[in-house]
């Protein structure tokens, strides 16, 4: 290792191209993360930087990226960033998950985690019946939960999927909405349908709903029910009251799994109401059978600009 740069070389042109990306776009991501120049020359990828710690970071990340290329795994800017932070923070277990964990929601698609936290969430969903996934918007919490639910349904591990969220206005008073009750609440449930439609055509979703294989309902409709053989997802859980959260959690029947997702920085409840999500994190933290996965701004994948927006608001 020289004092001012470090390089990594290979004779495998295909793997080399996959690691570099189109027009060296992956190397540009590394350059920004390492605060130095990463470029390709011949069959070498070179990092020009004198700091030994960053040279070692470069070596670890590049080696992992070449393993991805060898295994045929997708390489994206988001995965590179997540890998970088995992290596930097010495999250060896999470790095291993990111490389190997896969879930198959339908016969038509294979979903691999795009960040370390997504991989950790997948692993947790496999091993816990109740999981809280908490963190900023754009981290893929709901997407991974729905994906895992679809896989469980496909594998006949459950008989139905129930997706719910509280009907709470996001800091606005929308006033009177026209239409029947279903038409009034549909706008609040639209984000859940957006996720479902990434896996199934709208016509298929409608058929599943008619057969009660998939239910998309407001949280208030959960009261009094006991759900067996079901995969139950509560989205936007930060907008539940303490009473609603307790009601929801006690709907769990035999052979059922519950996932609660929410962003504890975007609570739209009246100031006089306590968030059921925040309360549950305190009250249930001592129960070993319940898992809590916390995402951060570094896990945002929706758009890299979203990460900067979240960061800016955290600084205010």
Please characterize this protein's 3D structure.
The protein has helices at residues 13-20, 25-34, 52-71, 77-88, 92-100, 116-127, 141-154, 181-196, 202-210, 242-249, 276-283, 304-315, and strands spanning 5-9, 37-41, 44-48, 103-106, 109-111, 130-134, 160-165, 214-218, 230-234, 257-262, 290-294. By secondary structure, it is of the alpha/beta class. It has a 6-stranded parallel β-sheet. The longest helix is centred in the first third of the chain and has 20 residues, at 52-71.
Average pLDDT number: 84
* Biggest β-sheet strands, sense, barrel: 6 strands, parallel
Strand content: 15-25%
**Helix fraction by DSSP (H/I, runs of at least 4):** 40-55%
Number of helical segments?
12
Order of helices and strands: EHHEEHHHEEHEHEHHEEHEHEH
Strand order of the largest sheet: 8-7-9-10-6-11
Structural class: alpha/beta
Q: What is Rg? A: 22 Å
Summarize the structure.
Helix content is 44%, strand content 17%. With 316 residues, it is of the alpha/beta class.
Blueprint (SSEs and pairs):
Layout: E1 5-9, H1 13-20, H2 25-34, E2 37-41, E3 44-48, H3 52-71, H4 77-88, H5 92-100, E4 103-106, E5 109-111, H6 116-127, E6 130-134, H7 141-154, E7 160-165, H8 181-196, H9 202-210, E8 214-218, E9 230-234, H10 242-249, E10 257-262, H11 276-283, E11 290-294, H12 304-315
Parallel strand pairs: 6-10, 6-11, 7-8, 7-9, 9-10
Antiparallel strand pairs: 1-3, 2-3, 4-5
Helix pairs in contact: 1-3, 2-4, 3-4, 4-5, 5-6, 6-7, 10-11
Features:
316 residues; six-stranded parallel sheet; three-stranded antiparallel sheet; elongated
